[in-house]
Amino acid sequence: MLKNYPAIYTDFYELTMAQGYYLSGRKNETAVFDYFFRKIPFKGGYVVFAGLSDFLEIIKGYRFHQEELHYLHTQGFKDSFLDYLKNFSFTGNIHSVKEGEIVFASTPLLRIEGNIIETQIIETILLNIINFESLIATKASRIRQAAGERLVLDFGLRRSQGFGGIQASKAAVIGGLDGSSNVYAGMEFGLNVSGTMAHSWIQSFPNELAAFRTYAEHFPNNTILLVDTYDTLEQGIPNAITVAQELKEKGYSLKAIRLDSGDLAYLSKKARKKLDAAGFPHVKIAASNQLDEYLIKSLLDQKAPIDIFGVGTKLVTAYDNPALDGVYKLASVNDKPTLKISENVEKITLPGIKNVTRYFNEDGTFYADGISLQNEQKPVSHIEHPFLPTKKTKVIDLKSEPLLSKVVENGEVINDICSATKSRSYFRQQIEKLSPEYKRFDNPHVYKVGISTELKSLRDTMIQKNSK
Amino acid sequence: MLKNYPAIYTDFYELTMAQGYYLSGRKNETAVFDYFFRKIPFKGGYVVFAGLSDFLEIIKGYRFHQEELHYLHTQGFKDSFLDYLKNFSFTGNIHSVKEGEIVFASTPLLRIEGNIIETQIIETILLNIINFESLIATKASRIRQAAGERLVLDFGLRRSQGFGGIQASKAAVIGGLDGSSNVYAGMEFGLNVSGTMAHSWIQSFPNELAAFRTYAEHFPNNTILLVDTYDTLEQGIPNAITVAQELKEKGYSLKAIRLDSGDLAYLSKKARKKLDAAGFPHVKIAASNQLDEYLIKSLLDQKAPIDIFGVGTKLVTAYDNPALDGVYKLASVNDKPTLKISENVEKITLPGIKNVTRYFNEDGTFYADGISLQNEQKPVSHIEHPFLPTKKTKVIDLKSEPLLSKVVENGEVINDICSATKSRSYFRQQIEKLSPEYKRFDNPHVYKVGISTELKSLRDTMIQKNSK
User: Fold this and answer.
1) Which of B11, B159, B187 sits opposite A71 (nearest CB)?
2) Of A341, A383, A324, whose CA–CA distance to A139 is shortest?
3) Confidence of residue B1 (pLDDT cuts 50, 70, 90)
4) CA within 20 to 30 Å of A349's CA: A270, B224, B409, B415, which one?
């Protein structure tokens, strides 16, 4: 829905710059921008790239509508420029990493080529979507890692950052979750959606048993009973067992009970024993309440017999690191490389039109990513650390693949846009190619990302030229 | 835009519960829910209530469209229930605190009365909007506090959590900011929007001076020059002074320079001296780069001569505390009070239909909030701590006001919906009535929120009855 109105979901300065390019006669000049992030969130070892599908939908529908042009007129934009915007659409090329790919800091993940106005103007929405979806997909992946193959569902909509919940639920599925409580995202993106009852359902009946019975009567095939409204062990679980018995007599079976407070390790063990003793070993145990990858790991380390995890706030807001620092930097204008210098050396950009190559170990696992100039004549033999001259790696004999591929040509999206579940399949395939030491929660190994010798000398020459 | 499609921006379980109420013949039963939060974010002393305007717009447009009903059919919902949803709209009453009000933990801030289906079904969207906007308005208020009366602008859209940026920019203005870079929010909510140039503008020209000159030529009345692309002190500021001189010769004046990296205290002092020495004491200094209330306070403590602050990631994601824990709890069904018990005592709810009274000190500052039952016969003489019997405060002689007022009657919004700037005015008036000790960043004083003796005995009786 909102994807049809992306053009003004932007920073004002994209439009002042665009008007400046237009009025100074530069509208047909060409530019190339790179998207990359600088720091892996959650003190982790990798990021799951997500947001590409939504970004491509946005590129397809990128138009300024009459109402928006009128508004821009009231903000002082010039008529000649607004006339230009009237027929504006994105006509350039985009190369990108696949959605669901495992990626690392400093690697260009998207390369946007086109005229200087169109490449500039899409900056904000690109950053907004890709930064956030990659952040949440990464968090989801960590949660998936902790939960193993148990069912994990997103329950976070009530604590999502406003309409950011739309993308959060989708990105959570790309990063490996099974489904969501978010009906909107389910409809828009074809996610599995589910849910049963809140405490209010139970409170609204004269007693808990009546509430359980009524639910089971109307949803006999899909009953999950929330057992902690009054007293989990003394009332909730015994009442759930009563209803499980009644369902069984009618030929149905209770699907699960859900614990939403208290000590989940303790309560789940007690609940499992009571359910088993009553003859219901197949009734599953679901748990929720401020869960994240660390709590899930701790519960499973304690052998808590939990089959289904509901994860909310900590996932959908990426609570412990709620932003990915992705940036969009100019690399070339009219085929001439450009550079941004900074007092923080790690913020100096990589000039020129670049390719990214992923190198593999013999067993097929990821070894390193190499960034090189598109127009290098010779094959890249070594990749180097961007700043430390002693850190150099030979790559010429390694199996390799280009990491970026063309997804938009002359403004047209060239392949079918991936569904969230398709991107999840790709993610699940790729995460297997990342060695466990990069996936550790504590002090993960740092993945090698290097630059070619030619790229390095171009950058160093440009820095020296500027500082003269 | 999205506000016209709120009905399925919900947790699946709201709809299963609604169908359960419908199928069990309870659709005309009445219910009352309270919204409140449990913990003030940012280790702060208060929250700025926001999101009401957007929530009221959502209530006005709350419909299930054909496409959505079709989708729900595919998810197994029953035809009779979907027929009911076809004509569904919210027909109940809502009492609320005003947008921009200063509020505290445990106080009911919204009271929703109506039939059991309509009061349940709006839960998720209410929580999504009010939690997030109140969170961001609170963060903005803290930033405003640190910045004093200096201009403060939201630059966060690229790091906003997806479409959450829509609400983030609005809530930032409600909480005291002057404007935003977010054009969408500017158009939708009538916010001041602004922006000038990124590093890419400068990189795209043969040199920095050419970039500055071209910008000034096309925006002579509104030029803010970004001076840190190559070398702030050696190039950026001297070039800005050259352009300031050229603008002056044409009868214009340079508005400001902007620092976006490096040591902002050091660079702003150097910049101020250079600008003053060149005869430009009126050219302002803007600063951005990962700012929050603590960094702004530190910069101003160091006497950094910064006139304009641009605040991004830390504001729009509420980086150090990215969720408000607001909840929506059933208080009454068919005029009978309801209760949720929990192993965590602070999670036990307050039963019954309740009023909230704000008590004032003699100087007009806020003293305490008292929660009482709507049907109490005698005036409330004391308010008590919900759990500690020794903490009791006499309030009968104090000046007081009801905190909640009716905003929706029989489904109709009864007053004009407040604009963000109007809510900001209310906020700025109310924050003056909060004593400084509640506004401290470190260990702020805890504001008194108490309950009446009648409410307390109702709750305690219900707890005892349950535990028998």
Assistant:
1) B187
2) A324
3) very low
4) B224
Per the CB < 8 Å rule, is B204 touching A16? no
Burial class (CB in 10 A: 0-12, 13-18, 19+), B292: buried
Question: Would an 8 Å CB–CB cutoff place A357 in contact with chain B?
Answer: no
Q: Calculate how close chain B gets to A367, using CA atoms only, in Å.
A: 30
Q: Does B231 lie at the interface with A, CB-CB under 8 angstroms?
A: yes
Q: A17, B198: Cβ pair inside 8 Å?
A: yes
| B161 contacts chain A (CB < 8 A) | yes
Residue that is written with structure tokens 């009010």 in the block: B130
Interchain contact, B199 vs A129, CB within 8 Å? no
How many angstroms separate the CA atoms of A287 and A305, rounded?
10
Residue B31 contacts A where some CB pair is shorter than 8 Å: yes
Average pLDDT (A327-335) is 97
Q: Which stretch of DSSP H or E encloses residue B35?
A: strand B30-36
- Span between the terminal Cα atoms of chain A, in Å: 52
Q: How many Å apart are CA B311 and CA A77, to the nearest integer?
A: 25
Residues in chain B with CB shorter than 8 Å from the CB of A325 are 159, 313
Tell me the two tokens of residue A257.
């009970």
Which residue in chain A has the smallest CA separation from B262?
A: A343
E strands, A250-343, are 256-259, 284-287, 308-311, 327-333, 336-337
Cα separation, A429 vs A427, in Å, equals 5
Q: Which residues from chain B sit within 8 angstroms of residue A50, using beta carbons?
A: none
From CA B145, how far away is CA B430, in angstroms rounded? 13
User: Which residues 6+ apart lie within 8 Å of B388 measured at CB?
Assistant: none
Q: Label each residue of A77-136 as H, E or C.
A: CCHHHHHHHHCCCCCCEEEECCCCCEECCCCCCEEEEEEHHHHHHCHHHHHHHHHHHHHH
C-beta atoms of B343 and A116 within 8 A: no
Which token pair is B124? Answer: 């998720």
Q: Is 0.95 surpassed by the pTM of this model?
A: yes
Which residues of B, range 37-96, sit inside 8 Å of A by Cβ?
A: 68, 71-72, 75-76
Reported ipTM exceeds the 0.95 cut:
yes
DSSP state of A372: E
Locate the chain B residue with the closest alpha carbon to A326. B159
Q: How far apart are CA B101 and CA B104, in angstroms?
A: 10
Cβ contacts (< 8 Å) between B347 and chain A: which residues? 261
pLDDT digits (tens, 9 = 90+) for A237-255: 999 999 999 999 999 999 9
A19 contacts B340? CB cut-off 8 A: no
Q: What is the distance between the alpha carbons of residues A83 and A88, in angstroms, rounded to a whole number?
A: 9
Give the residue carrying structure tokens 């199928």: B23
Q: Tell me which amino acid residue A138 is.
A: T
Tell me what percent of chain A is helix, strand and coil, each rounded to the nearest 5.
40, 20, 40
CB contact under 8 A, A12 and B181: yes
Helix ranges, A165-301 (H): 165-174, 183-189, 199-203, 208-218, 237-249, 264-277, 293-301
Spatial contact of A174 and A141, defined as CB atoms under 8 Å apart: no
Distance from CA of B7 to the nearest CA of A (A): 9
Q: What confidence tens digit (pLDDT) does each residue in A147-196 have?
A: 999 999 999 999 999 999 999 999 999 999 999 999 999 999 999 999 99
Q: Could you tell me the two tokens for B86?
A: 């076809």
